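To whoever is on call:

I kicked off a structure prediction for a single chain this morning and the downstream step that reads the tokens threw a length-mismatch warning. I double-checked the sequence; it's 633 residues and nothing unusual in it as far as I can see. Pasting both halves so you can look.
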Amino acid sequence: MLRGMRKASSNWLGKTIMAVVMGVLIISFGVWGIADIFRGFGQSTVATVGHTEISINEFRQVYTDKLQQIGRQFGRPLTADQARAFGIDRQVLQQTIAEAALDEEARRLGLGQSDAETMRVIFNDPNFKGVNGNFDPQRFQAVIRQFGFTEQRYIADQRKVSLRRQIAGTISAGLEPSKSMIEALSRFQNEQRAVEYVKLDAAQAGTIDPPSPEALAAYFDDHKAQFRAPEYRKIAFVAITPEEIGKWTDVSDDDAKKLFEQRRDRLGTPDKREVSQMVFPNADEAAAARSRIASGSSFDDLAKERGLGAADVNLGMVAKSEIIDPAVADAAFSLNSGEVSQPVQGKFGVALVKIGKIEAGAQPTYESVAANLKKEVAIERSRAKVAELRDKMEDERGGGAGVTEAAQKLGLAAVTVDGVDRSGRLANGQPAANIPLGLDVVSQAFNSDVGVDNDPISFKGGYVWYDVLGITPSRERNLDEVKDQVEARWHDDQIMSRLRTKSTEMVQKLDQGGKLADEAATAGVKVETAAAFKRDASLPGVPAGVIAAAFRTAKDGVGQTAGAANNEWIVFRVTDITVPPVDVTSDDIKKLKESVQRSLTDEQVAQYVTKLESDIGTTINQAAFAQVTGANN
């Protein structure tokens, strides 16, 4: 934008227009004040629910947290355009408004929750419990930090959540699905069918002669939209990432060896031992047991005498670091195979430790991992360089330089893609090989335009700047350009047309009492079967269309559907329908009932919240909402 303003004001007309615009802004500041010039399109509230205002900063925090959470699940950040395409912006807004409505209702009803009760709920949350089953403060801090919460904000949020649950619990109390509903759903889910079917393909379509020039031209005229050339864009981009900058960084063997020594234990495979232990309440009992073993009794026999099974004494094949008790670990890795330790004072009592099989670990040589270590050191060192180059790149861009020009000044390699469509393919139909995997620069470029100063894209811990250098509009192709494609598509359509005709004739014969085996023999295909499958089944070799169509067809009924492959059509007969009896005491029915009850509860609460929002009064500032979600960019 700054570069565009600078270019626009480079001649006398542009300078005059810019002077008038700046003059109007200065007068506005003088008359209305700085804040009021933005009134109407920069308000600080996204939505108002009753007396509760959802501020821009509050909604931005919630929205950003949600996008980051989804990004972690996908393994890559979600762009603003992708979030809007998925409807995440509206979902988060609706959720935030619903929560505000419930908070308003909680205040109206005078509901509250003490600090002690709030802390009790948090302490009992299984997400915050350590290996000993108790509340772990470090784990609590780590988990809430991961989701962008401070301790104070999380506690305040949990108090609100608890009050909302009180309201929701009251609304849904006593709500239970009827017996007839559960039985109907059970029958629907568990109904099983069996079919016999045949697959017709290009072989059954027969020989198809090439089309005449007139037929091909007519087909092309009827399907021109399918052969239209897409819009292409010429783009240039430069990536400044730790990995990219790290390629230029030389790392000495001395530096790599230092890292190798630090990580030697983690780089290799540690020694492992088959460890068993018996824990005694005191040293005397442990010493007595050790004496019996020295006299010929076996470790396993003593364990049985004490009522201990294999699961009670066997720690499995473990590395030293995997044994929780350090004293037991030291003892276990000082013994030879078959030996039993002297009594060991551990964390949980006095133990006897027995060693079974021993697997020696493997330690890598420096030479085998040197390349990866050097790359890691180079990437780590380059992080500071990335920040430095980012600032320089922004300065160059702010000064009016394009991506390619700025990259040249900074000694960076810019990439130019001469023409790419929305799917990332070149004019020859092949993917653009010089766009790094995972870099979403194409969709960004198609949401921009020539001459637009675009914001950089976050990528692999760094940044990517891009320019749209040119646009080739979508156009209709002539027949000569796509003749081979048109002929291939015409040929496929002819095959499918013949297969549908043959299938219809076969279905008619079967409806009149014919046998599928006889029709299959005539067509030169074999009869296949699939039995005892449910609606959601996925069977090897059975097209999904057959399964879906079978549940729309009565017993002994006949049908047809498209196959899984191109130029394939299926004719089938339903040979059996089985509806298992409903066992209301089974675990499956109990799980189904719980699932239905959750759905009914969600629906009931949703209706209540909708009515609540209407009664309280809800307004949405669309301009502020667009500002936060990037819809006005």
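Update from on-call: the warning came from a stale cache, not from the record. Cleared it. Sanity check on the structure: The mean pLDDT is 84.
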